[in-house]
Amino acid sequence: MSDGPTTPGELRQRVADFLAEHPPAGTDRLEFLRARYDAGLAWVHFPPGSGGLGLPRSLQAQVEEELARAGAPDNDPRANGIGLGMAAPTILAFGTEEQQRRFLRPLWTGEELWCQLFSEPGAGSDLAAVSTRAVREGGEWIVNGQKVWTSGAHKARFAILVARTDPDVAKHAGLTYFLCDMAAPGVDVRPLRQITGEAEFNEVFLTDVHIPDDHRLGAEGEGWRVATATLNSERVAIGGGAAREGGMVGVLSRTWRQRPELRTADAHQRLLRLWVEAEVTRLTGKRLAQKLAVGQPGPEGAGMKLAFARIAQETSGLELELLGDEGLRYSDWTLVRPERVDFTGRDAGYRYLRAKGNSIEGGTSEILRNVLAERVLGLPPEPRVDKDLPWKDLPR
Amino acid sequence: MSDLDLLPTDVEDDLRASVRELLADRCPPSAVVPVYDGDRSSIAPLWRALATDLGLAGLLVPEERGGAGASAREAAVVLEELGRAVAPVPFLTSSVVATTVLSAAGPGGAGAGLLAALAAGERTAALLVPLGTAPGGRLPGFAVDGSGRPAGQVRGIAGALEADVLLVPVAGPDGTSVHAVPAGDARIDPVISLDMSRQLADVVLDGAAGERVLGAEAGDAAVRSGLEVGAALLASEQSGVAQWCLTTTVGYLQDRRQFGRVVGGFQALKHRLADLFVAVEQAAAAARYAAVTVAEDDPDRTVATAVAQAWCGDVAVRAAEEAVQLHGGIGMTWEHPAHLYLKRAKADQLAFGTPGTHRARLADLLDLPAPAAP
Question: Which of B7, B270, B362 lies at the smallest CB-CB distance from A370?
Fold first, then answer.
């Protein structure tokens, strides 16, 4: 590969050259996306050969803008949030060259969607307590257990999986991280209906699922460290908004502008407070993104997610109050399988209910406050009675 | 609202380090607290060291007009450090607000010499507009007497006690002009202030001779610009105050033991501090963005300033209140510096308009209007 661009101007030229070679109008969508990946324009902060150019993350916005202006198709990022936001950065950080070559391109183009097999009925906030077992047998691992809260498992081709490989050591030390083929025999996905009526989540039962050892990510016993990197990425992905009025507060602001008859003095004060909080959170995310070099986000991303969840919940609650009688109606309780998760989609009642998940999924707000207090502020950790006991001896 | 760079440059990091070093040496809390008992003797030498020796007074003035040719980015860094030390110096009132007002007068005209003197730290100015006035707020109405001299009175002026020249907005039929009047020719009555580290004064002008530095065609916009830049950069001072409160409180709770445990290990406190940390980070980002929009003269500057003021004032107060509460008994004492920060934070929250005033301003700017009166 020739020397890549290093300045915004050179990057602009590369995008222009790419568009000249692959005119969006005359190119098949998938071919276009694959070519974009190969040109290093998928995620410019990734290294050359893995869909990127080794440039600062902040330059990605410029690429997106220029491609969108040219009418280029995108990779429908909301349909593969876990793949793009969590699996990809983890595979980049911990994957072998072969794993990066195998997984990253179809992940980015959306040909292969991803889901996350982390939480279990007995391991929620205490993720390190997972009991799904992986036992080595020759060049493979045999996996048995039950996972839960798995968004998009019914559509995913692969999953990031945390399983217990050594029950005789302390809980954090006995975990290993795998890339699991969701089409493998023994993977059983069942819908889990949530408070919105939809089934965006699933329970996943794993019965004698075979995972080849070259789908192990990181070393045996290193699963906790790898999973922590994934969760930090997730919090940045969830918390980092883009445009002003881009989230729930934009929905509410538009309702406010279009429906003067709904306005009240109380709602006005609350709207303005939420608008300001959403804006300062957006700026904080922008500043954090500018600080992030290529690689691993730190625990500061937890703060973004914490703020995002509170704002989304308060804003969607205020919207229902603003709507008054209309807020008493709900669009549809039918169990449907949504195509993609859209926190600001559907009707106000749905938004209100779905936002309740924002302070639970990807680390509860309570756990995130612990993360910030301990890992950013340096305050003492919570007492951990189970820390030094072998996992198999823990009371349960 | 383009993609502005919110990170500090190396030059700004160096500036921060030298300001912090000087303040650590010359402005510990023990040097600030005497101002509450009427001893202001430390202020002038500290201000001289900052304004002249470090050359901070001229940051916002172009080099060709006698300044350092820096920008609001650098001034914001200075204010963050001044906030962190509750330094009782007139940087915000003279080197930011008065300097911005005077800069509106073109080079070579009246006031050019004064601007250069402010930039050099040889003179110090204060704008005769009450500290609580928001950028869009009502300006005080000084009039001119029969001999063309400004007359009138105004209450609650910050920086007047440290100033040797006063910038007087004079209302006329064609708009507001600005006169520069020697402080020695005005009656300046010190006010016992909530925040004695930025002590206010009531000022009476009665026949003081001055020089008109801005005509009626330019004065109003210049004064409003001074207030807007003041409000935008005050956010950085508030951010500095909040950072000191958070850092100091966390440090204390890492040491303090009760019930055989480090108090900072109690989850009720950890969660409060985590929430405060998020708010303080948001304040730093909002303050930074406001400063950058001023530095770049970005069209988003007015919204950015209102957002920063709507957020940072409350966060600094919350941080200071948490500092007092979480220090327990010692936090309530005169001996512990937390009260200096609480008083500064609360006064700053009211300065250049309260957060509520700025939210109301945002309602207009963002087309999110209040309900029509029934």
Answer: B270
